[in-house]
Amino acid sequence: MGSGKKKKYKTGLVLSGGGTRGFAHLGVLKALAENGIKPDVISGVSAGSIVGALYADGNDAEEALKALTSQNLLGFLNFMIPNGGLVKMTGFETVLKKTLKSRKIEELDIPLIIHAVNINTAEYTAFEKGDLIEIIKASSSMPVVFPPVKIGNDYFLDGGIINNFPVEPLEGICETIIGVNVNPIGEIRNLDSLKKIAIRSFQISIRKHAYDRKDRCDIYIEPEGLNKYGLLDISNAKEIFRMGYETTLKELKKKN
Questions:
Q1: Which tens digits make up the pLDDT trace of 195-209?
Q2: Residue 16, SS3 per DSSP
Q3: Rg for the chain (alpha carbons), in Å?
């Protein structure tokens, strides 16, 4: 990072998973843009794959926020009888189809690597081409809460199961790596449903991923206060966006 022979890309961006806390990623992108920083390649998982795709498709941060909040996005959480998952993603898919111009990853304006777990082979899979919406859905399918997504002959779930902070693909090819973690852990009460317990268990299981890898980043951003918000809480999208924006401005000031 930051030295040696010239790298393929100037700036690489890592976007973690974290459910609707991913709105903070958009605030980060707004702050970066205001400081003349535009990622040349993005590695994202789960919520990071959603934001990465919208941005790589040509939407600026404000446009992407508007698209994701223009209707009750968690109207995409159409509850169904538990059968492989508690919630299906039909409304979410509709929002993506309406918003994204690109239909394949390789059609995006900025190279994007999306991560998911193949639950048949237990492999962590990095997608750099293929059906963009299906792969985003696979990367974002939190186990127990969402059903797995079939791609080819295999089924896939949220890449955060194995690595919720996928910095590895950017190492050695970027002059600067910026990492954004939107999955901080705090204390939570009122775990009064199976769904809440499942989400909390998943969050705890992936919390170390970013902390174990943050030293591989030149700039590491973890918006303060995100632990106050649930992983599937859309009502505070603008506040979460603001947290990402303000924390990034502070981190960039430290570097100047």
A1: 667 766 766 766 666
A2: coil
A3: 17
